[in-house]
Amino acid sequence: MSDLPLLTWALVLAALVLGILAGHFGWGKRWPGPLSKLHPDYLTGLDYLVTEQPDRALDMFLKLMDANAETIETHFALGSLYRRRGEVERAIRIHQNLLARKELAPEHREQALLALAQDYLRAGVLDRAEGLFQQVSEVPRLRVSALDALRGVYERQHDWQQALGAYRQLALIKAAPARTVAAHYLCELAAVAIERGDIVVARSLLNQARDEALPFPRAALLGAQIAEREAQHELAVKLLRQALTESPTLLQEELPHLLRLVGPAERDAILGELVAQTELRDFDDLKRLVFAAIAADLGSAAPLRASIEKVFSQDATLQALWQEGPTQSERIAQEIGALLAQAEKYRCNECGFSGRNFYWHCPACHAWDSFEAYAIVKLR
């Protein structure tokens, strides 16, 4: 059932239906009499609500709803309320009931089509949602809402070319989201091209992504993947270092990869440079580096010792672990590293979705660039 208490839900619906009846019977001018004079279907509907029979209640309320100018917004309000509660089948019934009425005004028909598309999207019926959003996108006043929703449908289907097309249409009417979204679509297409071995196309797509957003560390990472694939190790290292400089949030994911490419001889030099870079920024970046190194079993690396001591001694949460003194730093780092190896590593800072894998596009809320190293957040 719902996350709302049953009584609250009944009162909300009752208020909506009272609005319908007020418009229908002209109660705004005068109260027609005692509750016994109300339409019996209305009273029956409320009875179904309080006895937890919402489908029967909905049937009663739909009988009372004449699709006219006085009640049409109540239809939409009730449908939206059902959708937000996750009761999508009931929302669909309301909007289909509207669309079945021949006397419905054109603007209300268009609005009902948009609402029905949103119902199908919420229900995960993407093909129906897509068709309706395409239809509604031809309506000028609803074009932005329909195109943006259509872009979301294509994202869920991983149809990046179509998503990019919808983005371009939104850009033409100055309603597109940040240009980094288009850059991500181009990187998704580039990743597909790399998988099928079409490196020329992949490079072209990555250049387009950089034209959309610069700096854009994801393009550098994919460029490093191409370079590594073609045995251009120096270029791969250069691009990986560029990506980590542009986005320290990638340290936990990419630091082990970078150090595997350079080998043990250059490892300390790379770590020393990373420490110097993070110390020029802020304490959180230094903390990211320390935890990325600990997760990669580098807690004993000489260039990191001073940084580990600084983080453990200055962080409000970690000070409790530091009470045994700096001489225990290596043991503490090993214990935390063991915990990190079993932990959920990342969390979306938009919706809180967490997991062991890194995502550019959150699988729960569909936000871009929202994943952070989770262990850092937990241990603050």
Summarize the structure in words.
- The structure is a single chain.
- The protein is mostly helical and 380 residues long.
- Among the domains are: 240-252 and 265-342, no CATH class; 343-380, Rubrerythrin, domain 2 (Single Sheet).
- It is built from 19 helices and 3 strands.
- The chain has helices spanning 6-25, 40-50, 54-64, 72-84, 88-99, 106-123, 126-136, 143-157, 160-172, 179-195, 199-212, 217-229, 233-246, 251-262, 264-279, 283-295, 305-314, 329-342, 374-379, and strands spanning 346-348, 354-355, 371-373.
- The protein has a 3-stranded antiparallel beta sheet with strand order 2-1-3.
- Strand 1 (346-348) and strand 2 form a beta hairpin.
- It is elongated, with a radius of gyration of 28 Å.
- The model is unreliable at 23-38 (pLDDT under 50).
Topology:
Elements: H1 6-25, H2 40-50, H3 54-64, H4 72-84, H5 88-99, H6 106-123, H7 126-136, H8 143-157, H9 160-172, H10 179-195, H11 199-212, H12 217-229, H13 233-246, H14 251-262, H15 264-279, H16 283-295, H17 305-314, H18 329-342, E1 346-348, E2 354-355, E3 371-373, H19 374-379
Antiparallel strand pairs: 1-2, 1-3
Helix pairs in contact: 1-2, 2-3, 4-5, 4-6, 5-6, 6-7, 7-8, 8-9, 9-10, 10-11, 10-12, 11-12, 12-13, 13-14, 14-16, 15-16
CA-based shape: elongated
The strand count comes to 3
Number of helices: 19
Helix content: 55-70%
Question: What is the end-to-end distance?
Answer: 37 Å
Features:
single chain, 380 residues, mainly alpha, Rubrerythrin, domain 2, 3-stranded antiparallel sheet, elongated
